[in-house]
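[Discussion] Sanity-checking designs against the backbone

I'm trying to build intuition for which residues belong where. Below is a structure token string of 354 positions. I'd appreciate it if someone posts a full sequence so I can compare it with mine line by line.
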């Protein structure tokens, strides 16, 4: 019993497909977003209340919603940015969800992924939102600027447009620095340096990139977690960059199915969870090598990746778990949704002693 345990605390059936879930910071509430069968968007706020989940707000949007983030909103506002199936990005005040505070036609096709930075007192610089779409474009938006993105990243002339499945901000430790990673359906992972406006690094992981996340957004970039189809995840050590070899990385095979999502524990960035297409949650801890870099014969330095140790796993449904979020306030408290139209609050114990 010394190992962490994964316990479903409470679950609730939904009458729609939930594609994303996010804890509302500094509260016992979370928001689920998705699609009704009739093609409209579902947006609900649920509150934990004496061992059950209470629906406290229910809104229906004109188009199905795919993804959401609080990452670019001030803590006092806690506005949710969402991307929908028609390519629209909106910022919503959950207290008045029917009328967005910001709305823009961001892409020509579905917005698959969204991430925010410099809100919630996390990260430096301007509050920005990144969107990735089936149209092959990655865009960065500043909510203070109407109608047009501050950055548009598109394929080079002659390159085929690929479906962007995931985006993630990192390296936001100063007013000048900012990195954005994007993952695509063909396995491409590209890191953009938003200060120099160039591709800093790219690789291919051979399978579609379902999720990307830096272990922390507001520090010198340290690690990047990428999860993929075909049951593999990759962790890249971002402290040492080699001009030819890029970043060092390790690969592991956890679930026997697609790994839909990977999320680092906010209170300890070496612990992370992955969610599987077989309905399982797996808890991991990353261990650093004795030295994170080594010198090559030509005098250059190359990074050395560590390894991931499984701590616990549990199958909580027979359908894929497609979204997951840790509570930023309570260690071990989490929420997830899956293709079984159910939302579950999950508690993971003993994370402070592993």
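Best answer:
Here's mine. Compare freely.
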């Amino acid at each position: 019993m010394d190992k962490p345990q994964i316990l479903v605390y409470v679950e609730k059936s939904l009458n729609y497909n939930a594609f994303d879930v996010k804890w509302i910071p500094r509260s016992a509430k979370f928001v689920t977003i998705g699609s009704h069968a009739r093609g409209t968007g579902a947006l609900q706020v649920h509150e934990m209340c004496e061992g059950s989940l209470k629906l406290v707000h229910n809104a229906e949007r004109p188009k199905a919603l795919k993804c959401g983030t609080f990452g670019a909103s001030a803590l006092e506002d806690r506005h949710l940015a969402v991307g929908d199936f028609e390519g629209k990005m909106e910022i919503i005040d959950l207290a008045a969800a029917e009328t967005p505070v910001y709305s823009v036609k961001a892409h020509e096709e579905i917005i698959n992924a969204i991430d925010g930075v410099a809100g919630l007192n996390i990260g430096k610089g301007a509050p920005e939102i990144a969107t990735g779409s089936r149209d092959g474009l990655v865009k960065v938006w500043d909510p203070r600027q109407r109608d047009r993105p501050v950055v548009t990243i598109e394929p080079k002339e002659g390159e085929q447009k690929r479906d962007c499945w995931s985006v993630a901000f990192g390296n936001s430790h100063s007013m000048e620095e900012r990195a954005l990673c994007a993952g695509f359906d063909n396995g491409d992972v590209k890191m953009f340096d938003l200060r120099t406006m160039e591709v800093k690094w790219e690789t291919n992981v051979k399978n579609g990139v379902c999720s990307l996340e830096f272990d922390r957004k507001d520090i010198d970039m340290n690690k990047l977690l990428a999860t993929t189809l075909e049951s593999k995840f990759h962790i890249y050590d971002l402290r040492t960059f080699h001009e030819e070899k890029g970043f060092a990385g390790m690969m592991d095979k956890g679930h026997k199915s697609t790994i839909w999502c990977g999320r680092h524990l906010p209170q300890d960035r070496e612990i992370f969870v992955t969610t599987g297409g077989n309905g399982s949650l797996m808890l991991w801890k990353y261990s650093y090598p004795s030295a994170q870099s080594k010198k090559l014969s030509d005098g250059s330095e190359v990074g050395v990746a560590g390894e991931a140790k499984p701590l616990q796993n549990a199958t909580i449904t027979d359908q894929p778990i497609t979204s997951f979020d840790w509570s930023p306030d309570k260690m071990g408290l989490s929420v997830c949704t899956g293709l079984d139209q159910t939302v579950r609050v999950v508690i993971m114990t003993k994370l402070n002693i592993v």
